[in-house]
């Protein structure tokens, strides 16, 4: 009995942290304000969204929105995608500056922002 209660406690605890982390990733992606229709938690799980690849823990590991005709600026909250390894936003019409919060992406290995209208400097994202 005690073991079952303990197991239930662990399970609810890990479920809670998973939800927190997934919604962190989800908020970060939604802050990009893309018009991609299935970028909505009411449609499907964030790991199923167009251009999104998750790791086995359900965290966003790769984002590829290359050549999707996207406009707007990159929000600071993109720096919250702490498990992001690969980011490809090339061939869009993103503008403005790259937020310095992107430097928080310490797992990032590959980043492609070519063919946009960015201004300013790229923060030191890759320090490896
Ligand atoms: C969830 O996020 C918290 C804080 O943001 C972190 O400490 C924790 O390790 C994360 N959990 C997983 C399973 O990634
Ligand atoms: C992801 O998409 C597949 C195929 O469209 C679907 O079968 C699955 O239920 C979806 N998963 C989640 C968690 O939404
Ligand atoms: C999301 O929409 C794209 C087209 O915009 C489609 O190719 C893709 O299969 C859709 N994915 C899901 C999980 O519905
Ligand atoms: C992103 O997708 C485009 C088009 O599908 C592809 O050419 C490109 O290699 C992809 N980028 C990455 C980093 O995988
Ligand atoms: C995401 O990042 C923003 C700006 O850097 C921050 O203010 C916010 O607290 C973060 N949100 C989450 C859910 O982690
Ligand atoms: C996107 O940028 C290209 C090249 O800078 C420009 O020709 C095109 O008109 C822009 N498209 C939109 C929708 O702003």
From TrEMBL:
One of its GO terms (cellular component) is membrane. Keywords: Leucine-rich repeat, Membrane, Repeat, Signal, Transmembrane, Transmembrane helix. It is a single-pass membrane protein. Its main location: membrane. Coiled coil: none annotated. PANTHER family: DNA DAMAGE-REPAIR/TOLERATION PROTEIN DRT100 (PTHR48060), L DOMAIN-LIKE PROTEIN (PTHR48060:SF21). This is Leucine-rich repeat-containing N-terminal plant-type domain-containing protein. It comes from Escallonia rubra.
């Amino acid at each position: 009995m005690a073991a079952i209660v303990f197991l239930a406690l662990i399970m609810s605890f890990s479920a809670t942290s998973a939800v927190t982390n997934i919604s962190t990733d989800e908020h970060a992606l939604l802050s990009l304000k893309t018009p991609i229709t299935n970028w909505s938690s009411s449609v499907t799980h964030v790991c199923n969204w167009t251009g999104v690849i998750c790791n086995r823990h359900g965290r966003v590991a790769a984002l590829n929105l290359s050549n999707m005709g996207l406009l707007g600026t990159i929000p600071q909250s993109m720096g919250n995608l702490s498990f992001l390894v690969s980011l490809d936003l090339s061939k869009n019409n993103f503008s403005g500056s790259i937020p310095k919060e992107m430097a928080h992406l310490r797992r990032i290995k590959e980043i492609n922002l070519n063919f946009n209208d960015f201004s300013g400097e790229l923060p030191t994202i890759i320090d490896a």
